[in-house]
Design a protein that fits this description.
The protein is an alpha+beta fold and 358 residues long. The protein folds into 2 domains: 208 residues, no CATH class; 137 residues, Alpha-Beta Plaits, CATH 3.30.70. The protein contains 13 helices and 5 strands. A 5-stranded mixed beta sheet has the order 2-3-1-4-5, with helices on both faces. Helix 4 runs antiparallel to helix 6 and helix 6 packs parallel to helix 8. The radius of gyration is 31 Å and the shape is elongated.
Length: 358
């Protein structure tokens, strides 16, 4: 039921719960170092304080000290795993990284329940340790809300049992536990929806910043990002084209005519290449990161030209272009420059021409 509700209230075409959790955990993992180191330091302090101030012959104190040591080691180990993952991009990309968070989340809640059980059974203490731990992990660990809610509800059921067993039946303490669990689950869901919507808006704004406003194609910023990430796998040819006599088209019919020409060329490009291959390079220039070889790319551009020639207008509409082929030892930026140079060679020879590097 909760899963269906989450699906309805979020944009599942953007990210599933699992995908969002993976991305968000990667994003938040860096800030968790402070929390993990604080917990480690606090437990080490408790070990030192306990060693010098408590009766070492008391078996119960040995249990407490063991629990402090377990949490210190678990917190330090989690911190070291996250640090190692940050230095290793391949490990950091794996979905299994979020399992570290799930494991630590479950362990620290179990730790809080154990401490609370000892406090209640042997010292007549309250439930504040478990309550503090459960609220803290709900706020600071941005994990799958289904997992977090399941752990918190399970812990709440156990605390209700502990309260009932200790007090001999229903009590105001049990009612407080139930209210606390409901608040905790609400906090988990609220954090999830807030973070999800923030990530959705960030992603959409980034996508908009990488799209040309007129044609809807990728722009130079999108190209710059691909260059930075060296994201050119499968690119077999690079073409740069521009519209011949574009200034004359603008001067004859105004910018509306120019925009219509750009849209017409874009529409035809989309019939022969996919959106990932097409980039509005600037003005009337288009860059094509073709998944076809140079010969097939040339044939497709010629087909575009033949169809453009049938478009009525005061100024004939056609394109010229240069096509280069990526080489293993040549930077992609140099291959783009080569295509650009070939474009200008083609334009010097006339209109509607294409030059290739081979």
């Amino acid at each position: 039921m909760i899963k269906k509700l989450l699906g309805k209230l979020t944009k599942e075409d953007f990210l599933s719960i699992r995908e969002f959790t993976h991305k968000q955990y990667r994003k938040a993992a860096k800030s968790e170092h402070v929390i993990l180191r604080f917990i480690t330091g606090m437990e080490v302090f408790m070990l030192i304080f306990g060693y010098f101030n408590y009766n070492h012959k008391n078996p119960l104190m040995k249990v407490y000290m063991s629990l402090y040591a377990i949490l210190a080691v678990a917190s330090l180990g989690t911190d070291l795993v996250l640090s190692a993952a940050e230095r290793n991009p391949a490990l950091y990309e794996r979905r299994r990284l979020s399992l570290v968070g799930y494991t630590y989340h479950t362990l620290i809640v179990a730790w809080g329940l154990t401490i609370t059980t000892l406090d209640v059974r042997h010292g007549g203490g309250s439930y504040w340790v478990a309550a503090t731990v459960m609220m803290a992990v709900s706020v600071f660990l941005n994990l799958n809300p289904l997992h977090s809610a399941a752990v918190i509800v399970s812990a709440g059921i156990y605390l209700c049992y502990l309260s009932c067993d200790t007090n001999g039946g229903f009590s105001t303490g049990m009612m407080n536990i139930i209210i606390f669990i409901l608040i905790d689950v609400t906090v988990i869901l609220k954090n999830y929806f807030t973070l999800y919507n923030n990530m959705y808006m960030e992603t959409k704004l980034k996508e908009l910043s990488m799209r040309d406003g007129l044609t809807g194609l990728n722009n130079r910023r999108a190209l710059d990002e691909r260059i930075a990430e060296n994201d050119f796998e499968g690119v077999k040819a690079i073409a740069i084209t521009d519209i011949d006599d574009f200034k004359q088209i603008n001067d004859t019919g105004g910018h509306v005519n120019g925009d219509n020409a750009l849209l017409r060329v874009t529409a035809l490009f989309r019939e022969y290449f996919n959106d990932r291959e097409l980039i509005r390079y600037g003005g009337d220039e288009f860059l094509i990161l073709s998944s076809f070889d140079d010969k097939e790319t040339l044939e497709r551009l010629k087909k575009v030209n033949r169809r453009l020639s049938r478009v009525p207008g005061d100024v004939p509409l056609h394109i010229s272009g240069g096509i280069s082929v990526p080489e293993p030892m040549v930077q992609i930026t140099d291959t783009i420059k080569m295509a650009d140079a070939l474009l200008y060679d083609a334009k010097r020879e006339g209109k509607g021409r294409f030059f290739t590097s081979k």
